[in-house]
Amino acid sequence: MSGDMTGQIIPPDIRRMPDGRLVLVGGNHNVQTMFAADGTGADPAAVAVFLANHAARCGWCAERGIGYGQWVFPDPIVFAEGLPPGSVASVLERALPEAVRPAGIHYPLPLIAGHPDRQCMTDTHHSPIGGMHVAADVARILLGVDPTPTVDRLTAELSEPSSHVGDLGVQCTPPIVEMRARQPHLPGIRSATNGVQAGNMGIIQLVVGPNSQTDRTLLIFGDSFFRSLLPELARSWRSIVFCRTPFFHKEMVAAIAPHDIVTGLAERYFATTRPDAERPHFLAYPLMLGRATNPDAAFPALWAQLVDAARLARP
After folding, report:
1. Are strands 239-244 and 217-222 parallel, antiparallel or unpaired?
2. Secondary structure (3-state) at 155
3. What residues pair up with 67 in beta bridges, in sequence order?
4. Are the beta carbons of 283 and 244 closer than 8 angstroms?
5. Which class for 314: exposed (0-12), middle (13-18), buried (19 or more C-beta within 10 A)?
6. Predicted pLDDT of residue 262
7. Which ranges of the chain would DSSP assign to H, the alpha helix?
8. How far is CA 105 from CA 170, 203, 204, 237, 250, in A?
9. Residue 297 pLDDT > 60, yes or no?
10. Closest CA to 28 of 276, 287, 271, 221
11. What is the rounded distance in angstroms from the CA atom of residue 144 to the CA atom of residue 154?
12. 82-99 in b/e burial notation, b at 16+ Cβ within 10 A?
């Protein structure tokens, strides 16, 4: 732990920038080492696995007429002020420069970097305003819609900033609070989770938004970055099934019958991508990890509405 003149205690895996922003520099992935500009970058073998997964996913979805895209969400360390200039570099951009990056891989760094209101002071995720811009861009890419009128309207309707403690701020003693403005929520959204306890792999979140711009269904295989975007994605997709996993689970697709599928991961996970062939059945996650589930009261009805359980039983 480290302290400052105010008596604030900050864990060693977190660094406080001169502007007060908290940035994850350690953790299980040793973030600062991973993103060091003079480091080795991602293992070429892991990059090859990432590319093979992506090519197979694209081909599989194309054969079935399903829209597909993969998002890599930039870690805040790549745009955090306060680190020595040139000391960090994007892991993805070093391994797959935009000029040679395959189609369908999206890295929304320009949407977040340089926009302090789209970043968080105490969280590893983007701010609600940043999430609004990223989700609008997902809709633009997959649905071919122009999000500008909606984004402009929501920006004009931002709330007064209110207090929030992010996933980094809560680790500090005392917790570090920030003030964040938010765009108004889409009315009428219903949402429920399967309530995986003490972990995240295997989380299912179901979302239905009757006021969406389309009647399409979106299936997401991803992590907390995509999960944080669900209220914004519900502006474009009528139904959303979110599955917390690093893999692409073909066994879930027929039961959900999505029009579109997206996969996503935080950039710090990019260098540890595993082959999709190593995936378990998605619904086995709580069992194999020994985790209980406590579904929300609304979950069974939404599950029956969005998932054809009989299709799950078919080979």
Report:
1. parallel
2. helix
3. 260
4. no
5. exposed
6. 98
7. 31-34, 44-63, 91-95, 109-112, 128-143, 148-156, 224-228, 230-233, 250-256, 285-289, 299-306, 309-312
8. 32, 24, 24, 20, 19
9. yes
10. 271
11. 20
12. ebeeeebbbbbbebbeee
| Residue spans per domain, the chain | 43-149+186-312
pLDDT digits (tens, 9 = 90+) for 110-132: 999 999 999 999 999 999 999 99
For the chain, the straight-line distance linking the first and the last C-alpha, in angstroms and rounded, comes to: 52
SS3 annotation, 218-283: EEEEECHHHHHCHHHHCCCCCEEEEEECCCCCHHHHHHHCCCEEEEEEEHHHHHHCCCHHHCCCHH
**Token duo for residue 63:** 């054969």
d(CA 154, CA 152): 6
Half-sphere exposure (CA, 13 Å, Cβ side) for 77?
Answer: 27
Q: Write down the pLDDT at residue 92.
A: 96
- Residue 164's CB is within 10 A of a number of other CB atoms, namely 17
What is the C-alpha to C-alpha distance for residues 29 and 168, in angstroms, rounded to an integer?
A: 15
Considering the entire predicted model, what is its pTM? 0.95
241 with 204: CB under 8 angstroms? yes
How long, in residues, is the chain?
315
Q: What is the pLDDT of residue 2?
A: 53
85: its two tokens: 């200039």
Beta bridge partners of 98: none
Rounded mean pLDDT of 67-88? 89
Does the pLDDT value for residue 3 go beyond 80? no
- The rounded distance, in Å, linking the Cα atoms of 20 and 119 is 12
Measured CA to CA, the distance from residue 74 to residue 76 in angstroms comes to 6
Q: How many Å apart are CA 220 and CA 223, to the nearest integer?
A: 9
Residues 69, 73, 78: CA angle, nearest 5 degrees: 145
Task: Tell me the C-alpha distance between 243 and 283, whole Å.
Answer: 10
